[in-house]
């Protein structure tokens, strides 16, 4: 978000991909994201072609029957690379960190039980419901329901009908989980000061050492340094050789 | 008609089983889970760039806020963060900036149903009108207006594309809200209003 220069964002994409392969993850899951990443690019390019901004000049090139304005297209490319860098970094984070690690980090950083537990349960519930969703789908198929020939409206109707049992299951699950928590003495009300606080297993097991704090500080320093070099507030031409050469070529032509 | 049938489902003085904050917290988390599944993995979600042409998650947002009040609103606000990250549709900073839009998209239906005492089981014309206007059209106009502005601020779309993106967002959310949300409300509400997790006020 802080890096505006395309070089910085391309480097970030490269670093993320290197880290993904270093983490011994198959790069195949990135291939699955290609249609989405392409559609974002097409979406942004299409909008800038269909809705040109006259304030950005008229340095047009003609490709077939299309008259394209170079400057807005280049600025869109810069914004696109920034979005892609953020998406790949997010994919790296979520593909290398299981939800349990995410929860441990919240508990270690002393995020209140309410927030950390809700997040944990939400992530876990998503997995459970995804499984339920497939089971309901399989049950429908085993009873002869065929989506393939259905039109879009029919598919929407069938989809909604598939969500109905999912909601019914969720109601039962809410009741079961909340009763289980209540039975174990979990409460959101302010704890009685006279009672010894419940020991936190996660915090006892995962203790922040000096090296952990140093690593966090180092990451922060790197982020601040990179963002000051490729700052989004600075003029694009000042921080990006690619932008400089692009605009130089544009002026010469 | 019996006395119990005359009472609104929103009447706080009705006989009901005791609830607890932990129950509502679990409700929030579980609704978030359903939202992630419906929003991300739903076979009908059609993302085009960062805007979905058809996003079933919106139906979960509205329905969740009608049933669970602000607890549903918390889930509606935060599940798109996770579902966007998992699917790679929008990066985290954009998703964070869209939090107010997601809150409004969900909670408008909750406010409308509680304020006008509409029945979530959609029993009469008034309930349907409130659902379609207060639960689908108005929240999506507000949400899309704000959301499109955010996309413009992040330079994902140019200023000139505001109207087209806005219309795409509104239509892409209204259709699933009305079609999917109506079926869910009609089929599941009679069970939800009898359950302990149903929120008659805004918080309990």
Structural description of this entry:
The complex is a heterodimer of chains A (253) and B (204). With 253 residues, chain A is mainly alpha-helical. Chain A is 71% helix and 3% strand. Chain A contains eleven helices and two strands; from the N terminus they run αααββαααααααα. Chain A has helices at 6-22, 28-32, 34-50, 70-96, 99-108, 113-142, 152-183, 201-205, 210-229, 236-239, 241-252, and strands at 60-63, 66-69. A two-stranded antiparallel ribbon of chain A has the order 1-2. In chain A, helix 6 crosses helix 7 (152-183). Chain B contains seven helices and two strands. A two-stranded antiparallel sheet of chain B has the order 1-2. Chain B is globular. Classes of the chains: A mainly alpha (253), B mainly alpha (204). The interface between A and B is large, with 69 and 66 residues.
Write the layout of secondary structure elements.
The complex is a heterodimer of chains A (253) and B (204).
Chain A: H1 6-22, H2 28-32, H3 34-50, E1 60-63, E2 66-69, H4 70-96, H5 99-108, H6 113-142, H7 152-183, H8 201-205, H9 210-229, H10 236-239, H11 241-252
Antiparallel strand pairs in A: 1-2
Helix pairs in contact in A: 1-4, 3-4, 5-6, 6-7
Chain B: H1 3-6, H2 21-41, E1 46-48, E2 51-54, H3 57-87, H4 92-97, H5 99-115, H6 125-153, H7 162-192
Antiparallel strand pairs in B: 1-2
């Amino acid at each position: 978000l802080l890096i505006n220069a395309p070089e910085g964002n391309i480097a970030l994409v490269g670093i993320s991909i290197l880290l993904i392969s270093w983490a011994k993850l198959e790069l195949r899951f990135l291939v699955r994201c290609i249609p989405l990443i392409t559609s974002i690019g097409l979406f942004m390019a299409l909008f800038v072609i269909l809705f040109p901004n006259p304030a950005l000049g008229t340095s047009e090139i003609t490709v077939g029957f299309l008259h394209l304005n170079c400057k807005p297209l280049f600025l869109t490319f810069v914004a696109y690379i920034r979005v892609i860098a953020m998406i790949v970094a997010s994919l790296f984070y979520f593909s290398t960190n299981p939800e349990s690690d995410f929860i441990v980090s919240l508990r270690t950083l002393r995020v209140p039980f309410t927030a950390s537990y809700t997040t944990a349960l939400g992530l876990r519930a998503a997995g459970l419901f995804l499984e339920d969703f497939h089971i309901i789908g399989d049950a429908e198929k085993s009873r002869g329901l065929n989506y393939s020939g259905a039109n879009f409206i029919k598919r929407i109707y069938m989809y909604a009908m598939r969500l109905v049992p999912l909601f019914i299951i969720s109601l039962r699950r809410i009741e079961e989980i909340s009763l289980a928590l209540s039975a174990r003495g979990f409460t959101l009300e302010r704890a009685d000061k006279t009672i010894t606080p419940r020991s936190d297993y996660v915090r006892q097991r995962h203790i922040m050492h000096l090296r952990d704090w140093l690593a966090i500080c180092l990451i922060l320093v790197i982020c601040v340094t990179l963002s000051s070099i490729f700052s989004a507030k600075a003029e694009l031409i000042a921080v990006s050789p690619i932008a400089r050469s692009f605009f130089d070529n544009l002026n010469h032509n | 008609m019996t006395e119990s049938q005359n009472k609104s489902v929103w009447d706080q003085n009705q006989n009901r089983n005791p609830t607890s904050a932990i129950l509502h917290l679990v409700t929030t988390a579980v609704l978030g889970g359903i939202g992630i599944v419906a929003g991300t993995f739903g076979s009908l979600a059609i993302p085009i760039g960062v805007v979905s042409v058809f996003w079933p998650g919106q139906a979960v947002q509205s329905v969740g806020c009608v049933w669970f009040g602000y607890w549903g609103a918390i889930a509606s606000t935060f599940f798109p963060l996770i579902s966007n990250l998992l699917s790679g549709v929008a990066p985290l900073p954009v998703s964070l900036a869209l939090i107010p839009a997601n809150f409004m998209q969900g909670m408008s239906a909750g406010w409308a149903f509680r304020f006008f005492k509409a029945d979530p089981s959609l029993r009469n014309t008034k309930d349907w009108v409130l659902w379609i206007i207060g639960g689908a059209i108005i929240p999506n106009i507000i949400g899309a207006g704000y959301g499109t502005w955010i996309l413009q601020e992040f330079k994902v779309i140019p200023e000139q594309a505001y109207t087209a993106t806005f219309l795409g967002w509104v239509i892409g959310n209204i259709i699933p809200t009305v079609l999917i949300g109506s079926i869910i409300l009609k089929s599941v509400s009679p069970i939800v209003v009898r359950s302990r997790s149903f929120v008659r006020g805004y918080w309990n």
